[in-house]
Amino acid sequence: MPDHDSTTLLTRQTKRRRVDIGVKRAVGSTIFTRARESLLDSMNQSHGPDQDADCSLVAHSHLGTNGDGEKSNVLRKLLKRANSYEDTIMPFPGATIISQLLKNNMGKNGGINPSNKQGSGALSSGGSEIQAEDACSNSSRDSPLDCLSPGSLAPSQPLSLSSFDLDRLSDEHLRAKRARVENIIRGMSHSPLVRLNTSDHNQESSRENESSSSRGGVVGVGEVYRENKRKQRLPQQQHSFTQLVCSRQEQRQEERRQLKLQLEDMQKQLRQLQEKFYQIYDSETEEEENGEKEDGNLSEDSIRSDGLEERHRDRGQHTHDNLSELDPGLFLDRARALLREQALIDGEMEEDVDRRVEGDRNGERVMKRRGGAAGGGRHLAETLKQQLNCAVSQVVDIVVKGFSSPKQAVSSPTPNYHPSNQRLHCFGDGIVPSPLDSFGGLSGRLSGVPTPNDQTEALPLVVRKSGGSGGENTNPSLPPPPPPPLPHHPSLHPSSLTASLGFNPPSFRHPFPLPLMGYPFQNPLGSHGGGAGYAPGPKDHHRSSPDSMDMTRETVSLRTKMASLGGSHLSHHHHRQSSPTQHGPEGLSLSLIKSECGDLQDMADISPYSGSTIQEGLSPNHLKKAKLMFFYTRYPSSNMLKMYFSDVKFNRCITSQLIKWFSNFREFYYIQMEKFARQAINEGVTAAEELTVGRDAELFRALNMHYNKANDFEVPDRFLEVAQVTLREFFNAIVAGKDADPSWKKAIYKVICKLDSEVPEVFKSPSCLQELLHD
DNA sequence: CACGCCCCTG
DNA sequence: CAGGGGCGTG
């Protein structure tokens, strides 16, 4: 049953949403907002042509029995009148046709001569409807169960109704059943049998109703009376009543058609969004597979979209079949079911307003219903909005999840990463500061397997400082902040992105920050005017966000590849690919390698939007690299650091942190020097010349343990020389008693700082660690 | 004032 | 190794 499914899905969604945090939640809320706006907008629109009666709950047989001649006039009047209190009706679309019919009927009973067809509309207007509702409320308070007694309905459906009584709050589909039953009942209302049955039960009340018709309402009579009365009087007041019925029906049908149309609209948008994702994803996959021969292959996107969809479905199955909701048909079904359900809920709401809720089953729903009774049944729209919100956000979640956890979804990660690397390169140029950059630099590149635990000390500092310094979005604990002003990439078409997604560009706020989606993933070649990358076709704008998601997959794949192939292969790879961008080996294309070697991995795990190559944080690998660099330079300049950490988006914080690192390195270094110098003095060494620092020296071992713990780097001889000089400097200074001077070390520093040697070029490569440590 | 470095502390 | 205070420099 669709209704039941929708309930289940809602529950699941609720669970999901509870689990979901940060971005996804933001996405969901954004979608919800947009969906609600859209829905409300459409609800405010004028009624469209009556084309679809699928959602109608009222039997059309009534319409068939009506005379058409006067109907239009009556309808006009009724509609006019309806418009007069449209404020009452329109905001409460949840009121069902049935209830409206009943009300009208009651009003008619109160003040209308059954034979007076023309005046029925006007006579039934005014407060009769409200009075009728009040009457229902009052009466239901007196006898709550009267409002929805199975006996008051068709005897042919007692089982369904009783079960409905039992489970109405938890079993949605029974409401649909009830709707059908009521329709059937209404259809059968002309049958003498039905009349007989109902009149048997309600003769007194019926008489009472008739006798008290002057009151313009059925005060004190419960819903059961209305039901029976309706059935009884239908034959007598057929014309006026059916006219009212028709008007009400049409009114309600209009509302429902409208809602349904809106739902379909939303569903279309969903489908479009789906397709966009598929297309993007597909094109991305294709790029990965096709490597550098991207141009001209984009046309295959559509061809391959089916397979892609299949992949997505598979992915969805992996993720609790959530992706099944991506199916527009299912969504539409759910929407329809929702409409039916809502209509029934509202009808029931009015029928048993005060009927106490047995048990706590679906207490929330009950509360919702009661709230609707009190607030006017606005929850049809609310429920629809919620459902839409849930569906849309879930779809987005699924897609995002699919992209962010590619290993689950993609059975065979594509082996080629070049295009995206180039894109990353472009992204990495730092044109667009990505808030997700803050997630960068977290994993241990050297540890073949990325572990979240690799996110260690270095990052927090940068994050904090970046946040404090204002410009940088680096707080990983927060969802991506509002994206910076739209990117200025020349080849980017941000608006087309939203347009292509089937939403109104001006109003629709894409769940993904547009800069993140559209900008950073543009073809890097485009930024150089080369245009060799992707044909600026209609799908160009599609690759924005999926690229970011692809990054995660690519990163994962790259890591796998790295583990097996080693860094040099990759670096060559990238050299070839990055040649059009005029970047040397130390260029950003290599920085891609570095980040993809693991720095981004954890970003990928954290956020589906990861995709930045330039990191705003320093990773443990950066620290290791800095330590190795310390073997060459003790006093690196800021410029040198920038050159040798080209994969880091430098800012004050990064620079300060790197400088601080080297300061700490020096501190340890000098502490060791002083310690060993004093130790030598204590051991009786009298001449500095006796002090030598070899690879087997204790001093060296201490230093090497600190800067080259794994001992997987061959310390240059020059460092040994410098260490020896430093040790002797300390020795001499101490022997000379200079250590009495508080700043006696500064002279030594001056000496040592001149002993810096050139750091090998290989350190400029982000992949230097792989290359160096594998030598 | 900003920056870099040292020194100290945790 | 990070944070913070202090100091010197441009």
TrEMBL record:
A GO BP entry: lens fiber cell morphogenesis
Domain of life, per lineage: Eukaryota
Gene3D superfamilies with a match to the protein in the record: Homeo-prospero domain
Keyword Lipoprotein carried by entry: no
A GO cellular component annotation in the UniProt record: cytoplasm
Keyword Transcription: yes
Annotated stretches, region: Disordered: 109-154, 192-249, 284-324, 464-502, 528-552, 566-588
Biased composition, class Polar residues, residue ranges: 109-128, 234-246
Pfam families: HPD
InterPro entries: Homeo_prospero_dom (IPR023082), Homeo_prospero_dom_sf (IPR037131), Homeodomain-like_sf (IPR009057), Prospero_homeodomain (IPR039350)
Subcellular location: Nucleus
Residue ranges, compositional bias (Pro residues): 477-488
SUPFAM superfamilies listed in its UniProt record: Homeodomain-like (SSF46689)
Biased segments, Basic and acidic residues type: 201-210, 293-323
Entry coiled-coil feature ranges: 249-276
Domain Prospero: start-end pairs: 615-773
GO molecular function: DNA-binding transcription factor activity, RNA polymerase II-specific; RNA polymerase II cis-regulatory region sequence-specific DNA binding
Keywords, in A-Z order: Coiled coil, DNA-binding, Homeobox, Nucleus, Transcription, Transcription regulation
PANTHER family according to UniProt: HOMEOBOX PROTEIN PROSPERO/PROX-1/CEH-26 (PTHR12198), PROSPERO HOMEOBOX 1A (PTHR12198:SF10)
Identification of the protein by name: Prospero domain-containing protein
Organism from which the protein derives: Monopterus albus
Higher taxonomy: Eukaryota, Metazoa, Chordata, Craniata, Vertebrata
